[in-house]
Amino acid sequence: MNDRNAAKRDRPEIFGSTVEDIVASIRALIDDGGLQPGDSLPPMRSLADTLGVNRNTASAAYKALVQAGLAETRGRAGTFIVDPYESYEEEGFARDTVLHDVGDGNPDPSLLPNPTRFQLAPAPPRLYGETTIDPELAEWATEWLAADQPRPFRLTVAAGAVDAIERLLAQTLTPGDSLAVEDPCFLTSISTIRQAGYRAVPVAMDEAGMLPGSLRDALEAGVRAVICTPRAHNPTGASLTAERARELREVLAAYPQVLVIEDDHFSLLATAPYVTIVGEGQLRWALVRSMSKALGPDMRIALVASDTETAERLASRLSGGITWVSHLIQRLTFAMLSDAETQQLVRSAREYYAAQNASFIAKLQGVGLTSLSRDGLSVWVDVLGDSAEVLVQLMRRGWIARDGRSFGLQGEGDHFLRLTVHDLSDDEMTKLAADVGAAIAAVPATTHSVTA
User: Do 255 and 295 fall within a single domain?
Assistant: First the structure.
């Protein structure tokens, strides 16, 4: 700890008797340069004693700063100020590494259709002010979405699921507003929330999805939107059951004005059936389905079904100007989706990913480890202790993976790793499972979970 930080602990610069006042005081120090990225905050116990408040109050203030992206906790080292506009972890390959990367979260390139083989029919140029949705894609998408979501809806086309969700949130929330999200959650969701200045309210989950009681707590806390992954949740691989979806609908029934967004990102490849948390009385809702996992990450397109008001607000951000999705991409998407060879490739990919995950989970069981992942591109593995320590040991054995804490909003995931294994051979999966077990064994016992 440098002298500058030590001096900051002793100066009575932070003040307040409530969570809101303490947070406002620290934010003011950040704004005027009194606190800068890398500076440490006083220990929570010390701050509570200095301000004469309950330690839970100091703890809640620090948690609010972390959720706002203004601070981060580093275990016993303490809580530190961070730059809210710095780059966040993203999906993709680890650059400049000789290690075997099982943390990239990418689909298998051999299971993606080749877009260059499609010959599009001649069509007139599209101009400003014209319709933003290609008619053939609209017809296909409406039929596909209506098969799962029988409620009346309007269709919108966005430049991928991230674009759709960012726009949906922007037409409902303002900086400082709160929304409920699964904890752990998708890396891009964390980035979106923090960069937009929203306040994430974590909702705990299990292998069947969001826990109803935790969602109820978030709604009672005043969230204005909910983001839920109905199946193939990233990173855990959880999918909602029909019973869990019914329970969540019952919770949401008392909050019809809350915007409910279902991020069904794995829809074309999921083995679990789609079930919805959108009840009959929900006034604001949207179902977002991305094409990137099945057709390729470069196919920047997502189909959105939503209520009329939400669709009109969303369309106002996509029409007439420079932000609509290219009709060339839309026409290519329709050509791929309606192609028999592509449809067979998607079916093969669905079966392959599920089989690879199941095979690896069986190998994990052989070394005494478990995973509840059943769907998606990756496997969420409980490493029974400090994931960062296990990750270091795993790297020494030639592997690089995703630390579960990267996906956590409130400390969730700190004893998990996310492993993308679908491109591994059977022998490689056997070795990885054995190496994960050996990495766990190499971590000092004091870092292992007491419930392991």
Answer: yes
